[in-house]
Amino acid sequence: MSKQTCRTFFLVVFGVVIFSVTTYTSLSFPQHAHAGISDTGVDTDNGEALATNPKTRTPKVTVTVRDEIPPDAPILVSPSNGSVVTNKRPPFVWKIGFDAHGIGKYQLYVDGSLLFDSITTPVKTDPLYTYAEDSSTGNATLQVKNDLTEGARTWKVKAFDANGNSTDSATWSFTIDTTAPVLLVKSVGDTTVSVSAQDVTTIPTSPIVLTKNQPVVSGTSEASASIKISVIMPDLSVTTYTTTVASDGTWSITLGTLPYYKTIKLQVSSNDSGGNSAL
Q: How far is residue 181's CA from residue 245's CA, in Å, rounded to a whole number?
């Protein structure tokens, strides 16, 4: 935006105009600047002339520049990127943002959709969440009051300053998993079984007779879960074997040499990446 002003000066000798000079001045302002200009010059509306009002002229310029600088991007803390949580109401934590004119509000997005708007600082209690800031850690924490659905989720935070400028945080992913993995033992040595951790009635009531003293125990469970077999001897000594479930959900463990004609107990468990377990 620009504004041009005009000035005309006269040289007068014994009441005769010898010559005149006209000057032009242009004032330029940045986009979105608002300027006001005042002058103490000749009041021609009231009959003044340069010869009758030779006062000093001092142009005054006032400029107001609109704030278009966004606040700092929020830094996400928790749930961490790629994490698995076993809480359907995880707290969302990020670093308190900064803006020269102050943070006006935050927005929380989950799975790309706006979940909560007008999260105001420094403390807010809402029917759906509580929000608080901790100056000692620099953390802002939003605690949801209703369960989120299980599965893969994404989240991000948008910060607004007092003038409406905004900045998005990074987008992080996490998984809510509160369900114990399904665990099934399908064979012990040469004996086919169907023992489910989810159904205690499937546990054999009489010992399984083995024909080999280094049996293979196999079954199925959640992919990438950790399988642990504890072999409990008659003297109560325990030997532990572990493996990881394959991507197709299968697993198998070869046990060490077992004593003949002894009753041995096997305890099998499965633990997924979220810490849920089946036994």
A: 11
| Gap between the Cα atoms of 124 and 131, Å rounded | 5
Task: Give the C-alpha separation, 185 to 195, whole Å.
Answer: 5
Segment 60-89 mean pLDDT: 85
Q: Is the pTM of this model over 0.70?
A: no
Calculate the CA 200 to chain-centre distance. 41
Q: Distance between CA atoms of 70 and 161, rounded to whole angstroms?
A: 7
CA–CA distances in Å: residue 174 to residues 13, 43, 99, 110, 142:
88, 72, 29, 10, 16
Contact between residue 159 and residue 75 where contact means Cβ atoms under 8 Å apart: no
pLDDT digits (tens, 9 = 90+) for 129-139: 999 999 899 99
> Are 228 and 240 within 8 A, CB to CB?
yes
C-beta separation of 11 from 50 below 8 A: no
